[in-house]
Amino acid sequence: MMTDEQTALIALDWGTSSLRAFRLSAGGRVLESRASDHGIQHLPEPGLPGFEAAFAAICGDWLAARPVPVVAGGMVGSAQGWAEVPYLPCPADLSQLPGAAASVRTAAGQEILIAPGLIHDPEGGTPDVMRGEEIQIAGAIAARPDWQASATLVLPGTHSKWARIRDGAVAGFATYMTGEIFALLRGHSILGRLMTDAPAAEGAHAAAFAKGVAMAAEAGPGDLTRQLFGTRTLGLTGRMAGGVLADFCSGLLIGHEIVSGLAAAPEGPVLLVGSPALCARYAGALEQISGRAPAALIENPAPQGLYRLACDAGLLSPNAEDTHA
Amino acid sequence: MMTDEQTALIALDWGTSSLRAFRLSAGGRVLESRASDHGIQHLPEPGLPGFEAAFAAICGDWLAARPVPVVAGGMVGSAQGWAEVPYLPCPADLSQLPGAAASVRTAAGQEILIAPGLIHDPEGGTPDVMRGEEIQIAGAIAARPDWQASATLVLPGTHSKWARIRDGAVAGFATYMTGEIFALLRGHSILGRLMTDAPAAEGAHAAAFAKGVAMAAEAGPGDLTRQLFGTRTLGLTGRMAGGVLADFCSGLLIGHEIVSGLAAAPEGPVLLVGSPALCARYAGALEQISGRAPAALIENPAPQGLYRLACDAGLLSPNAEDTHA
Predict the structure, then answer these.
(1) Residue B163 domain-assigned (yes or no)
(2) Exposed end of chain B (fewer CB within 10 Å): N or C?
(3) Which is it for the CA torsion B174, B178, B179, B181, positive or negative?
């Protein structure tokens, strides 16, 4: 007779504005998850006591019930985090993350293994960094040897990441400021003044987004800041309703990101990792621009990535059967 | 014996945030200029009384001393202005601006001729608009038949304009949001956090700007929002000092604008119109990208453009000798 699987690992996805905790079985199944707003910039108190308090609040009872290893990833390993873990350089074999990880020990004696971020520093280029996405990437491709062999992972967001996977390693990656620039333009620029929440006709949101994507697909180098001004003139001249101008602007920015990202992407599958609504926008733009459909839309692979980190670190055995009481 | 030239025209450059007035001779010489902060969004009181009051304050005494024609250009002719003057479509013969102008009459009976803006609405493209720049363009090329025949005018700023001149007409133009996006990134984005006012080594500002321009020159379509993130990573990794990160970001944005603008520019002279400091940045980037030197840097041709408007409207004769008492 099966009963509840036992806790074998606690995994923390600890970012700037939020903290998520996962209680995992020995086989990597998520038994329970919790979220708090104790991101590293929003701790209950400053500095080390704040990390201790946030940690105890989100999973102290789990550890009291059953002492297990704890792993963490994200901004908790940054210079403003609990301990600064240096970036691992690309090409970065994802199975080697533990070798570049660092440990902290709580006042209560609990050890926490914190993952490193990645740095991509091509010769003659500009460096790029990520912290937290490497865990999501590791989780996204963990179950698929073909994706580990070769894939392009796109993680849309405030700072979208495009990562090239080759032979189990992150060969390189690039960051696009798509989400942040969209928010700035909508919230603070002249473009936002004409954007409204007015109800739009059926299909009008999608049509405006597709028009932005189509313009991006035809753009030459440097055309973005000119095309963005079209958000204003299409609104001013009444050719596009205020309620869909934000969709047009979003289509332009996402379209430009995809055009540029695909130019550096190898053959093989493209995986979209993130919120379903945002991934759906990217999937539509990707197909419109390239005719390629994403191989998968993956919502939150962070628990699997942290599980893999723990296995690679020898904290638990990936082949262990879940314990049945 | 020569005495002071007499006033023959009062010309107003009336924008969103400022109002400038010029007292001109019959030959088009600026005898006196004044500026106030009574732009159309900053009138002393709302609506028509605000326009009347701002007008009386800046040039009422000039008109009392000698009644002369008054012309105006800029946002004073917009929907939020004293009177809305419809856009003149491109290709727009600059000598035909008066035919699309409108007049208002003050409570005191003074007529003011207000110039139209321009709209460029290419088939299959997005429309673009300008209001005020057409006056600067008219003034910039007024004295040079060769520039009237063929030239590219660049007016850098919050919303930079690139205008193509052919046979005395504005054949078309494009707007780039360069200045506004730079201000947003510096003031409100993650990029601004690493920018400082720290003193930089000699030449470091220029070198950082040139690096941004060089990256723009090599960019493919859609690369801008990726390259912008380099402002953060170059700062984070200590490869560029905080005091020059704004220069790098500026070089990227201006470089992208120039790459795109030149792709649509015909052969022939490129003229830069605007503040000397900003025009110098554009001149440097233009030469770095294309090897082309600007044919001229023109600081403020608005008085000459308004003078030409008055002449073309028949309000005074362009061949009149300045009056000598």
Answers:
(1) no
(2) N
(3) positive
Q: What ranges make up the beta strands (E) of B79-208?
A: 88-89, 92-93, 102-105, 111-114, 118-120, 128-130, 150-155, 160-166, 169-176
Using a CB-CB cut-off of 8 Å, the residues of chain A touching B190 are 159, 180
Let me know whether B49 and B100 are in one domain.
Answer: yes
Q: Are residues B266 and B223 in the same domain?
A: yes
Nearest chain A residue to B240, by CA = A126
Give domain status of residue A140, yes or no. Answer: no
Q: Which residues of B touch A219 (CB under 8 A)?
A: 221-222
Q: Which residues of A touch B256 (CB under 8 A)?
A: 221-222, 224-225
Contact flag B221-A219 (C-beta cutoff 8 Å): yes
Residue type, B125: G
Kindly state whether residue A127 falls inside one of the protein's structural domains: no
Cβ-nearest to A225 among B227, B239, B253 = B253
Tokens standing for residue A285: 């733009």
Q: What is the ipTM of this complex?
A: 0.93
% of residues, chain A, pLDDT over 70:
96
Cα–Cα distance measured from residue B58 to residue A28, given in angstroms and rounded to the nearest whole number: 76
Same domain, residue pair A270 and A308:
no
Q: What is the mean pLDDT of chain B?
A: 95
Q: Is the pLDDT of residue B80 over 60?
A: yes
Phi, psi of B257 (to 5 degrees): -60, -45
For B62-73, the pLDDT digits (tens) are 999 999 999 999
Task: Please write the tens of the pLDDT for every residue from A238-290.
Answer: 999 999 999 999 999 999 999 999 999 988 899 999 999 999 999 999 999 99
- Give the CATH number for residue B124: 3.30.420.300
Residue-number span of the structural domain to which B188 is assigned: 178-298
Give the number of beta-carbon pairs within 8 Å between A and B. Answer: 151
Give domain status of residue A130, yes or no. Answer: no
**Beta-carbon separation of A223 and B221 below 8 A:** yes
Q: Which of A175, A189, A215 sits opposite B229 (nearest CB)?
A: A175
* B160/B137 Cα distance (integer angstroms): 13
For residue A121, the distance in angstroms to the closest alpha carbon of chain B comes to 10
A126: nearest CB among B175, B220, B233:
B233
